[in-house]
Amino acid sequence: MKNVNPVCWFDIHVANLDRAKKFYAAVFNIEFTDLPIEWGKQCFFPSNYEGGNISGALVEKEDFIPTGNNTVVYFETEDCIAEEQRIEKAGGKVVQPKMSIGEFGFVSVFIDSEGNTIGLHSRK
């Protein structure tokens, strides 16, 4: 892995996607793009990947209960499997093994040693 900032994506979990979209659109004066419905109700923030900034999504969760851990940060990897294999040895727990997200690659989700939900993203 290159010595660069590995953060590539974030999810902000919400109870009401329409309400959250209106809030963030008003605060930041931006427009959202809806993601395919087969991924659940979600939309993503605008981004300029060539300019080096990351993007993320508002993700509506059924039976959502707000807590202090409603945002999931994703770290870019060569292949999610490599990091997955080190998570439990380091004191964490894999909660979503590597899965396809179609043309966008693959993701894994884990709980770190402090109880935070963190994601991994890879293209292969």
What do you see in this structure?
The chain has 124 residues and is of the alpha+beta class. It has 2 domains: 1-66, Signal recognition particle alu RNA binding heterodimer, srp9/1 (2-Layer Sandwich); 77-124, 2,3-Dihydroxybiphenyl 1,2-Dioxygenase, domain 1. It is 16% helix and 36% strand. The chain contains 2 helices and 8 strands, in the order E-H-E-E-E-E-H-E-E-E. An 8-stranded mixed beta sheet has the order 2-3-4-1-5-8-7-6. Strand 2 (33-34) and strand 3 (42-44) form a beta hairpin.
Distance between the termini: 14 Å
Query: Number of helical runs?
Result: 2
CATH architecture of the largest domain: 2-Layer Sandwich
Would you tell me the overall average pLDDT? 86
Instruction: Give the proportion of residues in helices.
Output: 10-25%
Structural class by sheet pairing and helices: alpha+beta
Domain count, please report it. Answer: 2
Q: Compute the CA-based radius of gyration.
A: 15 Å
Please outline the major beta sheet. Answer: 8 strands, mixed
Order of strands in the sheet with the most strands?
A: 2-3-4-1-5-8-7-6
- CATH fold name of the largest domain: Signal recognition particle alu RNA binding heterodimer, srp9/1
Number of strands: 8
Please indicate the percent range of residues in DSSP E strands (runs of 2 or more).
35-45%
Query: What is the name of the CATH class of the largest domain?
Result: Alpha Beta
**SSE ordering:** EHEEEEHEEE
What overall geometry do the principal axes of the alpha carbons give? globular
The residue ranges in which pLDDT falls below 50 over 5 or more consecutive positions are: none
